[in-house]
Every structure is written in C-alpha cells, then in structure tokens.
UniProtKB/TrEMBL annotation:
<dbReference type="InterPro" id="IPR045748">
    <property type="entry name" value="DcaP"/>
</dbReference>
<feature type="signal peptide">
    <location>
        <begin position="1"/>
        <end position="27"/>
    </location>
</feature>
<keyword id="KW-0732">Signal</keyword>
<dbReference type="Pfam" id="PF19577">
    <property type="entry name" value="DcaP"/>
</dbReference>
<protein>
    <recommendedName>
        <fullName>Porin</fullName>
    </recommendedName>
</protein>
C-alpha cells in the first residue's frame, strides 16, 4: 500500500473576462485608507481571497482526499467509489501596505489562511505571513524556487503533480534589473528533512543544519521565461557520527500567448535531493533513502515535466488541459513504499457566472508505479463553486 501524501494583445472582452477569472488571486476589498501625509504617502488595509466549495467523486481509493496526489493511489489498486465535499481550499488574506504618491508600495505586511487543519479538520491553517520592505522580504510565502505564474485556472488543490511549488519561511532579496528582468536570492528554512529511514534502524535521526539557498531569474511579464536553482542539505546522525549529503536542483518554466485567447505553459525540473520542493512529495521521504547495507543515505534524483494549455472559448467560458510526468531515480532500498514514477492529466470547463462567481467541472486522471513495478491509476470528477472577494 502506498503512503498517504499530503505577446498577442487580448481584445477588450477577453481582457475583462481574464481579469475576472484571476479574481481569486488578485481581487481585493479595501477596508480603510489613512489620509495622505505632506508627501502624498498613505497606508491602506485590504482583504482578499475566495470562498470555494469542492464536490469530488473518486472511482479508486487514494490516500489524498482534497487534491489529486498520484503517489497516494493505493497499491494494490482498490476500485472503490467515494464522494467528498470540502470547503478547505477557501482562502482569506489580510494586508497592510504603504502607498506613495507615485503608486509604489515600498512596505507591506500580509497574512493569509486556508482551512486545511491537522488530521482532516477545517481548522484555520497559516499559508502566508510576511513583511516586505523595498527589495527585502522576510516571513513565510512561496519559495523563491517556485513559480506561482505556472499555474493556470484550475481548481484541484494540487494540480500538476510535477510542479515545483512550496511555501517556506525565508529571507529574500529581489532586484528589478529592468521592466522585463527580475533577479532574486533567498535563504529558506529547510523544514523537516525529507528522508526515508527504515524502522529497523531507529538509531539514525534526521536533522536540519543549514538553510536552503535559492536563486531565480525571470525575463518577461505576460510572456515570460524563468530559471531557478536550489541547494539544500540532507543531514542525519546517530549517537556516534553525523553526515551531510548535498541536494541540488534546477527548474525552467515559461508562458507564451499563442493568440488573443490561448496560452501555453511549460515547466521542467531535475536534480538530486531536492524533492521537498515538489508539490506532492514534500516531506514524504524522497530527498534521500538510508541504505542499511552501506550504513549511509543516498540522495534520490527526480525529473519532472509538465505542459499546460489554456483557452478562452468566449468571454465567460474557458478551459484548461494539462499533463504532468515525474520519475524518481535509483532506489537503493526496495520495498520501502516509495514511487518510481507518477503522472496526472486533467481537463476542465469553467463558466464565469458573474463578476465574482465561477462554476467549474474538472476531470483528473492519475497513474503511479512503485519501485517493484506495481501500477495503479485513479480518476476523479470535481465540481466547484468559487466566490471571490472584490
């Protein structure tokens, strides 16, 4: 059984529809503004987010209920139907920002929650909490190694399983090289070392020693290309000795508008000991595996590739289709439950019913194969209603 894993110009009508459709990420409600001072500077308090209800129908058993996680498909496969309704993906954020007379915002504070509480509860969970001052950011938000723009308008909580997507506590510096170029560096909290140690060797413990180092460069805005790299350590010890393995990874992603209402997005990544950055493998033991015969850990390689197509059929109708494939490298310890390769694909149709309201039907197929070659697949239908703050 698997383990449970948590530059074409758009015509005006499509511009309006696209702005509405992005509402769940960018829409804001201004709560209060201070009076401008002598320099024209003021402070603004705002609320943003969305309320979402997901109704899901599964045709196979998976360890993950709220989002498609291919490595969580139960092996041997169980073709068991089940239904599930959730509001956990709803998000509420509160921000405070300084606004200068020219419209720039040199200082801001932001906090956001969703409702993915521990043990399947709907207790609030902190997503973002950070302070930004000019070129510096400190706090918890998306890793500098992640690319938030790669995600199109999809509703499944995880989406393409091969994406590099992680939130972390960090210190980040960002330099705007030009209107089209951004360079950034960060030191990030490594979190729990994602290493698999057999139960027969409890004397070995995972530990954190060094922060994660990342760098990224992005060229473009609407059409863009982004490259990023990460260095992280995998540390472990017993009562007599301690060891460190170096993990590294690189990611390349891009978005290109084919015409006024169609765009494609691509991302690929490769490295060893960096699986903690993957949207479905973080914390699941895929950075390294301890080999009792060699009495040491070996970092695992990971390759991911995904492609996304987004199209607007009309000002109120759109669809997204994507495919994602991931492969884990050599596994020195057979039988530890880790997956060798996994993939998922999805397609949806979305109706913008009003200024704030969206309705969606989405189908998602996932497939996985473990180190012993046993395969499993799963299919999910999802019906979503989402109301954004605006």
């Amino acid at each position: 059984m698997t383990r449970k894993i948590k530059n074409a110009q758009i015509v005006p009508t499509f511009t309006i529809a696209l702005a509405l459709f992005q509402a769940r990420t960018y829409a804001q409600i201004t709560i209060a503004n201070t009076e401008p001072d002598s320099t024209g500077r003021k402070w603004s308090v705002y609320l943003q987010g969305f309320l979402q209800t997901d109704m899901m129908l599964d045709f196979q058993e998976m360890g993950s209920k709220d989002g498609i996680v291919a490595p969580s498909i139960v092996i041997p496969q169980r073709n068991s139907r089940s239904g599930y309704i959730s509001i956990k993906q709803s998000q509420i954020g509160l921000g405070l920002k300084e606004i200068e007379s020219n419209g720039d915002s040199p200082a801001s504070v932001y906090a956001e929650i969703d409702f993915y509480g521990p043990d399947g509860t709907t207790n609030p969970r902190l997503r973002h909490a950070y302070v930004q001052w000019k070129k510096w950011l400190i706090g918890q938000t998306w890793s500098n190694f992640s690319d938030v723009e790669i995600f199109p308008n999809i509703f499944d909580f995880n989406g393409a399983n091969g994406a590099m997507f992680l939130r972390s506590v960090q210190l980040r510096y960002t330099e705007q090289l030009s209107d089209q170029q951004v360079l950034s560096f960060s030191l990030e909290d490594p979190g729990t070392v994602s290493m698999t140690i057999p139960d027969s060797h409890p004397e070995w413990k995972r530990k954190n020693m060094m922060p994660v180092l990342t760098a990224s460069y992005c060229h473009g805005t609407k059409d863009y290309i982004k490259i990023a790299g990460v260095l992280s350590s995998v540390d472990y010890e017993n009562s007599d000795e301690s060891h460190t393995k170096l993990g590294f990874g690189g990611v390349l992603s891009l978005r290109k508008y084919i015409n006024s209402n169609t765009n494609i997005r691509l991302q690929t990544s490769f490295g060893k000991g960096y699986a903690r950055n993957n949207i479905v493998l973080s914390g699941e033991g895929y950075d390294a595996v301890f080999d009792p015969q060699r009495n040491r850990a070996e970092t695992l390689s990971l390759f991911n590739i995904l492609g996304i197509w987004e199209h607007w059929w009309a000002p109120q109708w759109s669809s997204v289709a994507y495919y994602s494939y991931s492969q884990v490298g050599s596994n020195p310890v057979p039988g530890n439950g880790l997956m060798k390769r996994f993939q998922n694909a999805a397609i949806n149709i979305i109706y913008q019913a009003g200024k704030n309201l969206r309705l969606d039907v989405e189908g998602n197929y996932a497939r996985t194969q473990n180190a012993e070659g046993i395969k499993g697949d799963a299919f999910r239908l999802q019906f979503t209603t989402s109301y954004s703050f605006r």
